[in-house]
UniProtKB/TrEMBL annotation, chains A, B:
GO cellular component, one term: nucleus
Keyword list, A-Z: Methyltransferase, S-adenosyl-L-methionine, Transferase
SUPFAM superfamilies, per the entry: S-adenosyl-L-methionine-dependent methyltransferases (SSF53335)
Sequence ranges assigned to domain PRMT5 TIM barrel in this UniProt record: 34-320
Domain PRMT5 oligomerisation: 503-691
Segments forming domain PRMT5 arginine-N-methyltransferase: 330-499
Protein name, UniProt field: Protein arginine N-methyltransferase
Species the sequence originates in: Wallemia ichthyophaga (strain EXF-994 / CBS 113033)
PROSITE patterns: SAM_MT_PRMT
PANTHER family associated with the record: PROTEIN ARGININE N-METHYLTRANSFERASE 5
UniProt: S-adenosyl-L-methionine binding residues: Y357, K366, Y367, E422, D452, M453
Amino acid sequence: MTGNRVPIANHIDQDLLDSNPTILDHVNDAFDLDYDAITLPFTKPTWKTRWQRYCVSNENDVNKGRARASYIAGKSENVVQDRQTAKEAEVWRLTRVYDKNEVNVSKLDECESIIAFASDWLELDSPDEGIRFDSEMALKQEVAYASYLSIHTLILPAPKNRKHVADYARSVMAALDSTSYLQLSVMIPVSDPAELEQSGVSPALSEFKGDPSSTWEVWDAIRTLCDYSPRLGLALDLGQPLPPPCALKRWSSEPTRQIIIPANAFVGNAKGYPVLSKSCQEFIKEQIKTLPTIVLTETYEGIHKSGGSKAYVQYLRYMEKLSNDSATSVEQFASGYMDWLQAPLQPLLDNLDSSTYEIFEKDPIKYQKYEQATYLALLDKEPNSLTRIAVVGAGRGPLVQGAINAVEAAAEGRRIHIMAVEKNPNACVTLQGRMDEWNESKIASVELVFGDMRIIELEDEQKNDILISELLGSFGDNELSPECLDGAMRLLKPYGVSIPSYYTSYIAPLSSTKLYNEVMHMGDAKNAEMPYVVMFQAVNILSGMDKESNRKAVQQCWSYKHPSKYEFVMDRNGNPMTNYHNTRAAHLTFTIPYAGVLHGLAGYFEAHLYGNVWLSTHPERYDKEMLSWFPIYFPINTGVYLPTNSEVDVHLWRLTDNKKVWFEWSVEVFVKADEKRIKINQSKLHNHDAKYNRIEL
Amino acid sequence: MTGNRVPIANHIDQDLLDSNPTILDHVNDAFDLDYDAITLPFTKPTWKTRWQRYCVSNENDVNKGRARASYIAGKSENVVQDRQTAKEAEVWRLTRVYDKNEVNVSKLDECESIIAFASDWLELDSPDEGIRFDSEMALKQEVAYASYLSIHTLILPAPKNRKHVADYARSVMAALDSTSYLQLSVMIPVSDPAELEQSGVSPALSEFKGDPSSTWEVWDAIRTLCDYSPRLGLALDLGQPLPPPCALKRWSSEPTRQIIIPANAFVGNAKGYPVLSKSCQEFIKEQIKTLPTIVLTETYEGIHKSGGSKAYVQYLRYMEKLSNDSATSVEQFASGYMDWLQAPLQPLLDNLDSSTYEIFEKDPIKYQKYEQATYLALLDKEPNSLTRIAVVGAGRGPLVQGAINAVEAAAEGRRIHIMAVEKNPNACVTLQGRMDEWNESKIASVELVFGDMRIIELEDEQKNDILISELLGSFGDNELSPECLDGAMRLLKPYGVSIPSYYTSYIAPLSSTKLYNEVMHMGDAKNAEMPYVVMFQAVNILSGMDKESNRKAVQQCWSYKHPSKYEFVMDRNGNPMTNYHNTRAAHLTFTIPYAGVLHGLAGYFEAHLYGNVWLSTHPERYDKEMLSWFPIYFPINTGVYLPTNSEVDVHLWRLTDNKKVWFEWSVEVFVKADEKRIKINQSKLHNHDAKYNRIEL
């Protein structure tokens, strides 16, 4: 097991702190129990009492359940405070100083392993304007004090009032602006139980209609108002029943920094030990891949019969082990590269280095498939015949080796001659070194040709029966396979075979705060104008299968076939005179079953090699062990809100000017109302003027 | 008459050009007829013939009405071209050269006074991908040739196919990117007659239900995809019937560079002369304020009995005169400042210079109203009494003079003592110069006090009955009137009167490509984070009166009253200890009857001076002759699309930290579907971290 350790924190409540106010004792106890940190309330009830005396009158409004702010200098209509209190309140507003007995933490050395909960009685979204403003002031005081103590994260109480979510968000933004390093997390319940009940869904049911989205929608409103501040995170509270998977998966693309699991979210197993429900296990197993801090609360309350207070953390450590053990080859291979934006390779422009080849050659699937495809192609040749094969882009030789293996398996007197074409002079040295070994074979001969497959000259008798290439990028055609193979068709006899014979690009709308933030906070608007290669993790595909219109969640953009069924006008070198036949345009409509924010497009490809042999990164049918391709990500420069049951039209173009190739893209959003399709939003056209991210021919 | 000359162009069609191909002759003829320019088709039919031979096969698809592109090197399925033609087509795609006889213009000196129409047969939005790509290539050829000739504007044929509007826009953007100076105008019909008919509207009817918006919506999609390129304009084609005013007013906020009026859009008057319909006259009169080029076409066709071909331009010159003559004082005063973004004044921080006072004192209305209010306030005093008046912010003395005039009018033995308070030491010199003149009055005495109204000290017996101030900004409170008057209340006796006694801020959602472009193309994202003072012209208020919910188009944010009805905690100088009581929050919902793009908020104010005397910039009841205040503009950093019948929630806050005052704002958009209110979009929070645009206390 080589996985990561998930940080887990134990929550120390006010009662425990009152019984032993020495924070370091609690930290050390937690370490002993295999925790990594503790969480605690930042302020004491004494502070609440003082704040309320200043800012809330309990006298007149007892019957309203919640008192209104009322101070002489204030905004409220009922002035009931005495002058002395009013003056103290104004002095507080000016100075904002705690008494030592109003806070639970006061020493710098206590703060290293703690996460603090801000006062849970703050009402940043109170209907009362006075209470809102005074709550914001109290929050700023906590934030300033937390910064002073170098506390790294403050968790804010959950918003309660959808109508005043903009007020809540504004206060959060003001708090963020008032410090430089402090992280703020907004506590958000994973569901609204009232909403689940209304939808007729108990958490046990898997059938579900409708979209229990209000808690996610509140979170989305806050982070959008806060302009995706990288210091704003989400503390997901699992104290409520989990919503059905369709709604749950939405959280996977959010910046979840803490997952709060109260002890009563565990169920007792047969022996009375606390365990999580199946769906909760699945959810946690996915979530912990991004290493949020798990906050366990109420562990001392004795809610479960067996295992005691440490049973919860033990169970989580067990889940961590399960998650790490079940990681796929790709996940292990890509560990550290998850959600990491890479500029796509330009192997045509740049010569790859040997270590890059080394990584690609480690793929346990790709070369097997090529070998299998070559084998099937050779089986379709007569026994006792010679087949001429061109391997274009031979690299360090894996496809050459695969072809030799294939002819040996095909047997029955079949022989091959391989023309290994490579334009990278450095890789040619490696190829030369393998020639002796290859030419030991009785049924295969290998000839090395240095040069660009579009330029090398050859005689008619040198033409080949089979052309093997591995020029595909994450989006299929994005490393210029179509253009290179156009030029390499000269190496093939009429009716010759190309492996791959055709390939198709696929696309789907995605949501990912992580990717969006990476692109938007790189400091240059141009960064939103290029596609990236990314191993997706905190990413959610927003589109769904739409049975009515037969629309798929992941849709086909376009294909390239080799040899082409069209005849081109050729130049004197036998290459197409222009590249305009390789332009493509796609206009696709996706159905969005549950509200989300579009941050870009996910691109995949599928290639037919030969017979029944395919390569695929399509999310519904990719080979989990194949390492060679991560998906591609086309960013959109503004988060585009997609309501439940909306439709998004994606436009994507592959363009060329004969010197370069590039993609442009845009989206439009529609909802259906009164049987009509109404446009509600659209993006600009992306990448129309990007100068540096075109792919050189 | 001091108005501007509206540029008018005459269209020279191909027949006229064929009869006399010397462009300069046509230009000179146009000048003689009081035109400023000519328009003409840029290419000849010979070019169309060649392009079609290359790119379109007429053989197989004659019956489909429109042929498909089909070339050997191409993308189409039916390959019918001969090899020679296919080769010529590919050579064209590579080189793109005109024959001299394929273009109407070829000399630099011909181009100064012409606007060119791009080939009207280009199908940038054809359903056929091949035709689209080849049309784009032909457009780029025209654009390159136009740039070579320094032609400043090319008018593009109207888009025809909503489904492929993204393809159209992409080609336009590519054309813009391929040049640096050339302006492109997209021709858009003012309405879709089919749509008008469907809505049961003939242009004569003023009653109208529904929203004939498709031509506007197409334009909006194109310019949004093109990211509001400042080189992209609109050529509005009045060849179709005008839609009803509600839909028509939408065009007023768009960058209309040309208005195309075919002769047949004129009707014959009693004598057979061509005139425009009443609604068309109104529309043109508004539009020509922004000086688009009026393009008259078909003037030689003899469509009207009387007046000949020059009757059309004569009529337009007559309308130009009417428009200039009817300009209001404000329009004349603000000429040159229309849609010009100004940073709001900070008179508290900066001392105004004498010329600024001079401009403000020219207002023919404001000082009359102050005088009238003071007069009414004095009438409410006993005859034969002395009234003490403080004029705070006396400036160069207009309010002092007004008070003296008022007491002379009030008569009946009333006398006044004026304490003129001014913090600007330079203005105090001017005030000193007027003292002798003022003190000549038998019933008024004036005392000059140099200092900040919040700081100057005074004895109880110096306190005043009336406090007169003119501290209001474009949004009422935005020049810190509330804070200054809080401090000046010390100068007033208990139960004294403030003129103004209260003021209210108003807001409405607006659309304006002009203002949005000004803000977005100033090069610094911070520019979208501050309010501006602007005399609106190419601005459209998007909200409407909603009778069902009783929502108004322009809504009230908040008010300030002086003296306040609240008692504040005071510091030892008699000023409020903190400024937090002057914070405000507004959450307003507007109904949007017709689709539009929100580019920001328009702010106004209304102040009650005394009795029935008001100052107002509220668009439904402002005094057209009052010059002192332009509205305020709060920008939104992305154009937010508002569908027909949507609702927009506006959040606006006035905030303070005791040192400064600033505004923050945001919007959320909703539509109603299935009786539910569904969120479809929102903005970020604006101005939360802007450091330089807060108003210093």
